[in-house]
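#help-structures

NK: newbie question. if I give both the sequence and a SMILES, will the prediction place the ligand too? trying with zinc ion
OV: yes, paste both and it writes out the complex. here, I ran yours:
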Amino acid sequence: MTRGLVFGALVVVDALAAIAGAGPQGGGGGQQPPSAAAIQAEKIRDNLYVLRGGGRIVQIGGVSVPQAGTTAAFITATGVVLVDTKLPGWGRPIIDKLREITDKPVTMIINTHTHMDHVGGNVDFPATVEVVAHANTATLMREMRPVTGGPAQPNLFKDSNGRGLPGRTFTDRLTVGSGTERIDLYYFGRAHTGGDAWVVFPALRALHAGDAFPGKGVPPLDANNGASGVEYPETIAKAVAALTNIDTVITGHYQTTLTMADLRTFGEFTREFVQAVQAAKRAGRTIDDFVKAWKIPERFVKEGYASTEHLRPIRPDVEVIWNETK
Ligand SMILES: [Zn+2]
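OV: that's the protein plus ligand as C-alpha cells.
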C-alpha cells in the first residue's frame, strides 16, 4: 500500500467523523449509512436548496468531496422539483431532509445523467413523481451499464420494475413550468456521458450542470455510457455561450457552488488536457508515459485544480481520448 493510499483512508475516516459528529459509523470502507442527518442543506435562494452529502466522502486537494452527486431542490407552489437523487438508498433520507425545509411533496425528479450516484434514490419515490431526463439517459438508465474506469452499476430500475425511470424525455431543449417557476433543460452534446442535461432556473439565475461540470479536476469520461473527451470542450463552449444571465452554478460534486467564469475555466482546462493527450499520441508516446508525466498546468493549480489520481486514476480518461484520436 502506498503512502498516498494510507493517507486517503485516514482522511475518509476523518471526514466521516466530522460529518456524522461522532466516530466513524457503519464501517464498510467509508460508506455513510443513509440518513437525513448525513445530508447538509445549503440555501442558495429562498426556494432553491443544494443537498450535499450521501455516500463516501473523499479528500481532494484538502477539501471534502462527497462521492454522491449534488442534489438540488427547487420549491414551487405545487411541489418540490429535485435534480438528481444520490446513491441507492438515499431517496428516503432526501425526503426526510426536505421535511425540515418544506411540507410540499416531491412532484418531479430531473436526472442529469445515468450514474448511480445521481439516479440511485429515484426508486424510493412514489410512482406519481414525474421523472425527466435526456432521451439518451433514459435509454441508458434501463441498462445501467458499468462506468468506464469505474464501478459496475446495480440494475436499479430492473429491480424496481421500472419505477423511477424517466417518463418524459427531451433531445435538444425542454421547458417545464412557467413564470418564475420555469425550468429550462438543455443538451449541448457529449461530455461526461452521452446524455448530460443542463438544468437552468432562469428566474433564479442558477444552473445545475451535473457531472458535465463535476468540479475542478480531470473530467471522468464514461465512454461506456456515451462520453466523448474530444467533443467535451466544444460541449462546454456551447453551454458557456448559450447560458447567459446565470450567477450560480451547482456542479456534480464540488463542495461549493461556482460561477460561469469557473465553467469557462473548466472548459479551457478540459481543452488543454484533451490536446495534451492527443499531442502525446501523435508524437508516438505511450499512455503510461503520458499518465506518468502529466501535471496540472500551473495556471489551473492556482484556480484550485487538484489531482484526482487517488480518487479515480486518470488513465481510463486518457485511454478514452487516445482511442478517439486518429
Ligand atoms: Zn457521473
